[in-house]
Amino acid sequence: MIKFESEKHLEDFICENLDDGVCVVDNIDFNTYKRQYKCGNYGVADIVVFNCVEVNNKPEVLEIYIYELKNEKFSVKHLSQVSRYYTYFKRMAEDIYPDLEIAVYPSVVCLDDGLSDDDYISNVEDLGIPVYKYSVCPKRGFRITNSQGIRLKAESIVECNHINELMGV
Length: 169
Known about the structure:
By secondary structure, this protein is an alpha/beta fold. Helices cover 25% and strands 33% of the residues. It has one domain.
């Protein structure tokens, strides 16, 4: 399994490949993005993408996409981390833009662990946080796929309940 030298190199690669306002991770359209976004006491989000949806030439919805990058295999602690950023952006944006609808979409991008989606035991969508797996291959190059599930150990279930509360699920 090939991985990037560091998480920063993964971030550099993704940012260098943000193509004309389309995100390489999930192909969403966006207006602007920021790297290493400082979220006060909540931490530092790796990549945050902003998109303003207009209706009749008037801003209606502010979409905020948070990408927490991990140059390692998935762990439930990554969900806790990105959930903190979700809370920060949801509160901050609603305070600053009270007249806009705010939509915050957290996600985790981590190293593909080699498991097929059939090997997972919990559905990511239950938590509302997509997990994207990336792989680097000399023949196929860089690939990102949306995981259909995550492997949870019994001790991780307690953490997931906490995440559900943070996310309002």
